[in-house]
Amino acid sequence: MVDLLKHHDMAGVALSELRANLVATLRLGRWNVATLREMVATYGTKSIAALIEGCIAEARAT
Prior knowledge:
Low-confidence stretches: none
Structural class: mainly alpha
Shape: globular
Largest sheet: none
Helix content: over 70%
Distance between the termini: 22 Å
Number of domains: 1
């Protein structure tokens, strides 16, 4: 997920679409949040980390 978010333009997918799908799948419990955060810490940028944390917060809020 981290790599896809970083290179969404090369994959031909809008970042907004990926964000919406990540929130939806987080709500369904399809991600291990601790592992996702670990991958962001290892491979992500600050902007990707902020995006993913926003998605996690949004998924938990609803």
